[in-house]
Amino acid sequence: MLSMIGLVAALALLVHMTLRGVNIIVAALLSSLVLALTSGINPDTALSEYYMDGFTGYFADWFLVFLLGAIFGKVIQDTRSAASIADWISRRLGPDWALFAVVAACAVMTYGGVSLFVVGFTVYPIAVSLFRVADYPHRFIPAALVFGSVSFTMTSPGSPEIQNIIPTEFFGTAPTAGGWIGVFIGLLIMTVGGLWLRALLQRAVRRGETFELPAESPLRSEATGQGGHTELPGPVFALLPLGVVLLVLNVLSQFIDSKTAVLVALVLGIASAWVLNLRFVTGFFRPMGTGSQNALIAIANTCAVVGFGSVAAETPAFGSFLDVLLNVAGPPLMGLALFVSVVCGITGSASGGLGIALPIVAPDYMAQGVDPGAMHRVSALASGGIDSLPHNGYVVTTVRAISGETHKRAYGPIFMVSVLLPTAALGLAVAMYLVF
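The structure assignment produced for this chain is given below.
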């Protein structure tokens, strides 16, 4: 009982400190200490062994993917390809479709392999100018950014995002695993989520809410807009590197392991971005250096929550929880979905949760003969629901650092379209895999 109380208390502490702006590495270490003290684990063993094994293990497995992904995102940003894509989509849809323009810009770039954080910082200024003209409430911008970046793009078949690559390591699958059901669920989340978010926005407008830039917005003292007379690459040349990443990944993964395929795809994506937009290139080593720094920060934050989850996995409460799931009366896919969802929720990280959950349960389910393709897609979908609770790193960054909003104002719509909807879609996916 004390271990269970400690697990809940440690998670609550992690969420609380994250919301208060405490560095996630510090928050994860302190929360891990609470886990150790309430579960009868030697604190030194908990931090120096369990925590560090999880931290360094995840770093060793996925650093190169984070590194090349961050460099690719920085190159796309520095060659102004990201701005070109966002500007082209916003001009085609116009201010009246501001919400869908923001979601579409985020979705195109993330499905093309651009880092989430690069997408958020790039699209935000354009979102502000569109929402200002349409007089839509600013507090919905974070929801549009989060929904377009994570809710369906990172969990759909063929996506180069790491949440779709990690399951390939444990189930021997390709990034396209999951068949037509995976495609259907991705389209369902995109359609229903977009309409739901629009309905929430329209209801707020009917209540009299209007556009107002928050005091903490980074654009408060800057001119907003789409770049004025600044020249941008043509949209075709801006989009082609993203297409290169998608094509190379999904072709090569049929012949080599998916982790190697995504590395090759990102290298070719970087090269094609430079070649196709050479006149916009201001340097080669600077974006590589900045991208490397961004990769270190991103993976260190993820490793921190993986370390916390690794300590949690050693507690009696976690062991009891695992026993219940593995022996739950129901199909294995249901147990897999529940376990991955809860672990991702505990860590506040889709990739971090997958890195903890799959090594524990994948061998058992594979031994039971469960379809690997179904397990891959269910795992990916399960990682993209409860992980988006308030302490999720991308949610915190988008709400506070990018948009200058508060969780009180902005998190409600995020919860509905990035937690409730994907979780419901996960249940539907499990049912469909069982029937078909």
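Interim note for the steering committee: The chain is about 75% helix and 0% strand. The two ends are 41 Å apart (CA to CA).
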